[in-house]
Amino acid sequence: MAISKDHLLWMYETMYKIRCYEDKMAEAYAEGKSPVFNIGAGPVPGEMHLATGQEPAAAGMCVHLKKEDTVTAPHRPHHHAIAKGVDLNRMTAEIFGKATGLGKGKGGHMHLFDPDVKFSCGGIVGAGIPHALGAALAAKKRGTDWVAVAFIGEGAANQGAFHESLNMAALWKLPFIVVIENNQYGISVPKTASTAVPSNDVRAAAYGIKGYYVKDNDPIDMYNVSKEAVERARTGQGPSIIEIETYRYLGHFQGDPEVYRDKNEVTLLRQKDPIIRLRNYLLNECGVTEETIAQLENKATFEVDQAYAFARESDYPKPEEALEDVFV
C-alpha cells in the first residue's frame, strides 16, 4: 500500500510530540510527591496515566481522520488528544487544574473534552465505546462520511459495552472503529490471565465485521491498517476492530511499584522504540534528511514547552467560579 510521505512526517512529529509531552508530564507530576509518594501533592495532584511507548496507535489512526470525525479515549488519553488536534495549551492547563483549561480546571487528566475537534475522554474503562457508537449513528443518519473511533485498552474488550456496541454497529453498518491498545496488562493483570482469545481482532468474526491485528507496535502497519478501516467506514462498509500489540514503558499509573513485571522487560522494549524505528524508516526508505527530522523535533519540543509554560502561568479558578457550568 502506497504511503504518503507527508503523512509519515506528520506521524513522526506527532509521535515525537507525544513522547516529549509525556516525559515532561512525568517530571511535573513528580514535583512535591517525594520522598514518600503522596498522590495529592504537587502541581498535578491525583492519579496520572501516561502513554509513553504507545504512540503508534494514536498517530497511525488519527493521521487518517478529519476534524469532523469523533474520537473517544480511555483513562490514558494524552496521545489520542494530541493526535486528534486538541488544543495543547488548554489541555495542559486542564491537567494542572487551571481556569484556562478545556473544562476550566474541573475535569482534569481523565476527563478531557474538546468539542472543537470532537474529542472526549470518559476516564472509566470502556465508557467511551457507546459514546463513539452514538456519534457513528448520528453521522450515518445525517448522511455524512464522518467516522467515529473508540480507543480502548485490552481490558475493556471484556466489558459488556464493547460487545453490545459492536453488535449494534454491525447490525446498522455504522462508520465505527474500535482500536484496542493491547499494552499487555490490565492494571497489573497480564492479558493471558484475563482474556480467552489470543487477540481481540478475532472477535470481529462474531459480528461479521472486519478485524485487524498490528504486531509489535509497528507504526507503518498501524498506518496501513487504519487507512483501510477508515476508508471502509467512510464508504458505508461498516465497522472494524483493530488490535495493536503495544507497550507502556511506565507503570499503570505514576508511582506504580510495578511488582507484577520484570524490570528487564521495559529495558528490552525500549530497544525497539517505535519512534526510533519510524525515524530510521524516514531516513533510509523515504529520503528524508537529518535536517528535516531535527526541524520536526524542534517544532514539537517548542509546542510542548509553550503548553507547559501556559499552564503554569495560568490562574486557578476562583472559589466563586466553582459551580459555573456545572449542572446538577
UniProtKB/TrEMBL annotation:
Alphabetical keyword list: Oxidoreductase, Thiamine pyrophosphate
Example GO biological process: pyruvate decarboxylation to acetyl-CoA
Protein name, UniProt field: Acetoin:2,6-dichlorophenolindophenol oxidoreductase subunit alpha
InterPro entries (alphabetical): DH_E1, PDH_E1_Alpha_Subunit, THDP-binding
SUPFAM superfamilies: Thiamin diphosphate-binding fold (THDP-binding)
GO MF annotation list: pyruvate dehydrogenase (acetyl-transferring) activity
Species: Geobacillus thermopakistaniensis (strain MAS1)
Domain named Dehydrogenase E1 component: residues: 46-320
